[in-house]
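TEACHING EXERCISE
Course module: macromolecular assemblies
Task: Read the component lines below, then compare them to the predicted structure of the full complex.
Student: A.B.
Group: 4
Components provided:
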Amino acid sequence: MQSLKSPSNTSLLNLYRVKNQTNKSLLGILVLLVVGLVLIPIFYLVTRASQKSFTQIQELLFRQKTFEVVATTSLLVLLVVLLTAFFGVLIAAGLHFVNLPYFDALIIVAVLPLAIPSYVFTYTWIALVPEFSGFLPAVFILFLTTLPYVILATLAGLRRVDGSQIEVARSFGLNHLQIFFKVILPQIRGHISGGVLLVGLYTMSDFGAVSLLNVDTLTVTIQNMYRASYDRNAAAVMSLVLVALSALFVVGDERFKSKTLRNKSIKTTSVKTYSINKPSYQVTVFSTIFVYGVFAVLVPVYVLLSRFITNPVAVDWSSLLSASISTFSVALLGAVIALILSAPIGTLLSEKPTYFSRFTNRAILIGHALPGVVIGLALVSFGSKISFIYQTTFLLAFAYALLFLAKSVASMTASLARVPEGAKEVAATLGMNKWAVLKNVVTPIAAPGIALGTTLVFLTAMKELPATLMLRPTGFETLATQIWSSAAISRFNEAAPYALILLIIAAIPTFILSRPDKADKPLSTQEIGK
Amino acid sequence: MRKLRNLGLVSALLLTLVTACSSSDTQVSELTIYSGRAEEFIAPFFEIWQQQSGIKLNVRYGDSAELAAQILEEGKNSPADIFLSQDAGSLGAISNEQLFTPIPTGVAELIPDRYSQANRDWIGVTARVRVFAYAPDRISLTPKTITDLTKPIYKNQLAIVPTNASFQAFLTAVIENKGRAFAKQWLLDLKKNGVKTYAKNSAIVEAIDKGEVSIGLVNHYYVWEVSESLGRQINAVNGYFEANDLGNLINVSGVGILASSNKRQAAIDLINFLTSEPIQNKFVSDTHEYSLIQSINPPQDLPSLAQVGALSIDLEVLKNIKSTQDLLIEVGLL
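Instructor-supplied answer key:
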C-alpha cells in the first residue's frame, strides 16, 4: 500500500488513465466497425423494403395475416421463454446446489441438446408420434432445443454468487427455498435474463421446427416469401417487422436485467460448500433432468439408430469424414471470428452504460433474431460483388460470426465486467503495460466466460442450415447439410451417421465447459491474490 | 524497329491467348450448375456426362426457388453457368430479369417448342402432371373438378402446399383461364372448407398415409417417391380429375444458361445430353417423370399424358406468377 503513495507510482497510474482515454477513441472506432458489419443485413433489408411503395408496405403490414403471425410468434416466444426460464433455473440450481449421483452424465445430458438441430428433433418426434403437428408441439420442440441456453447462463451466474451472503442467510435460519428466492435469485437475474434473451431470439428465428409442424410464425412467412414468391421486397418488409418485434423483446429484457444486484467481487464460493442432500430435492432435480434427457437426447438418438439398424445403408466413410472436418473447421473459424469481433464490443459494454453502448448492444441483439435466410441473402447480395470471397469458407464462417455474435458478446461482456477496474489500476501502478495487464489480470478472470461464449458460437454454427446452404462453397457439405438432405426425404437411416458424429463432436467441448469444478478452478486460485 | 516488331509479336501472342481464354470452349475443364433437382435423382446423370465429356461439374444443390432467389441476388456476378430447375416458375423468375442467354435453335431439338420459353431462354427437360393423391379407403367419391374440392365431403380432408412452385403454376393457370375473382373465391372456399397447408408435397403424401388428411394436390411422382423412401406400400394412390380440368395441369422441369456464363458451348453440350433419347428414357425409368419426347413411353403403371387429358400450361403465363403469389398473400395462404 505504501508504494502506491510514492510519486512515481501515482504518475504511472495517471499515465494508465490517460492511455485509457486514448484507447477509448480507438475502441469507439473498432466498435463502430463491428456494428457496421452487424448492420449489413439491416441495411440490406431497408434497401429492399424501400423499393416497395408506401401503400404497398401499408397493405402488407396491416393485412390480417400479419397480425396473425405476429400474434403466433409472440405467443410462441412467451411460452417457450417461460418454460425454459422455469426448467432452466430449476435444473441449473439443482446441478449447482443439490448433491446428485452421476453428476457428469447429468450435466452432459442437460447441455448436449444444444448441438441437435431443431429440425432433427422435429423429424424424429414426428417419426415417433405421427400426429405430432401444430402449435403446442412447436412449443415443446423449441423448449427442448433452447433449454440449455438458460441452464448454461444460470450455471455461470450461480458460480458468481457471493457465498458469504448465503452463510449469513443460513445463520438467520432461512430454508433452502427462502435462501434461493431472497439471496440467490436477485444476484443471478442478469444471467437468467441473458439466457432467456437467447431463447427468445432463437425462437423468433427458428425455421426448421415451426415449418415442419405447420406453425405460421414471422420467420416461416419470411422464408415462404423468399422461397415461393421471389418477392424479396415483401420479405424484407416482413423481416423488418421481425426486427421490430425483437427490439421490443430486447428492451423488455433490459428492463428486467437492470434490476439485478451487481456483485463485483472476484471471490467465488466453491460449489461444494453449500450442497443439499435432501432426498425430495435430489429426486425432483434428478428426474427432471432425466426426463429432459429422454425427450431431448434419447428420442432423437433412438429414432436415428433404430432406423439405421432396421434399414442399414453402407456408410460413406469418406463423405462422413470430409463433412466432419468441414463442419468442425468452418464452425471453429466462425467462433474465432465472433471472438475477435466481440472483443471491442464486450470491452465497451462491460464499462459504464452510455447511450452509445446501449445502441451497440441493441444493434447486436436485434440482428440475432433474424433468420439465417435473411443474413444469408444479405451476404449473397454483398459477397457476390466481391468474387474472391464469395462462396468461400471464410464468408460462411463470417456469416456464422454475424449470426451468433450476440452469444459471444453476452459472455464477453459478463466476463469482462467481472474484472474490477481497481485490479487493472493496481497492476498498472506495479508497472505493467497494457498487454501485461491484459495477459496477467484480465485474461485469467475473464477467460472461462469468454471460452463459454466462443463454444456456444461453435456449437450453434455446427448445426446452422439456411445460411450454410446459401453461402457454402459449391460442393462443400457440412454435417448439417447432409443430415438435412437425407432427413428431408425421410431417410433417417442415411442421416443417422452424420447426426451421431455431430453429437460426438459437440459433446467434447460441452463436457469440458460444463463441468463447474473444472471451470471454477482458475477462478478460486486467482493469480491476483498472489 | 526490331523492338517494335517484337512488341507486335508479343501482343499478337497475348491477343490469341486472351481470345483463346474467353472463347475457351475447347478447353473448359469445369462447369458450375445450380441444381434444384435433388442430388439423389440427378447426380447419376451428371456422373455419366462427366465421364463422357471429361468436364468436371461443380453442382450446388438446393431448393429451386431458393436457388432462383440466390441467382437473382447475385445478378450478373453469379458463378453459375447453368440453372437446372424443378419447375418453370423459378426459371421464369430468372428469365424475367433477363439473366438467361437464349439457347440456339437446333439445341435439344427433340423437345417440342411448346415446352420451352418463347425466346428459348430456357428449355423443358421433363414433365410432371398435377394429380390428387388420396387414401382409397377414406375417399369413396373422388373429385371430378377442382371446384368439387370445396364441397363439404372434403371438409378438413384436403391438403395443399401453397409455397410449392408447381402448386403456384397450377393456380396461375386457374387465374388465366377462369379469372382472378374465380381463383380468389376458390381459395377462400378451400380455406372455409378447412384446407390444411403443408411445407412439402412429400409431407402431404405421408400425411395421407398416416391418416392426418385424406386427399392432397401434388405432382404425380410423389406417391411413388414416398413409398420408395419408406421402403413399403403406402395407403395413397394417384387420382386424376376429368379430362381437361385445370387440376391435371402439366408442369415441366427445365434448364437455362446464365447470361453471365462464358462457357456457353459446354453448357449447350450438357443440355443436348439431358434431352437426348437414351437419357430421357432413363429419366422415365429412374425418376418416374414423363419425358417431353412424345415417342417415349410414360412411367410404369401410369397413363400417358394424352390419356390423362392434361392441359399444357402456356409457359408465357408463368410470367404472371407474381400476381398469383400476391393473391395467395391476400387470402392469407402465404
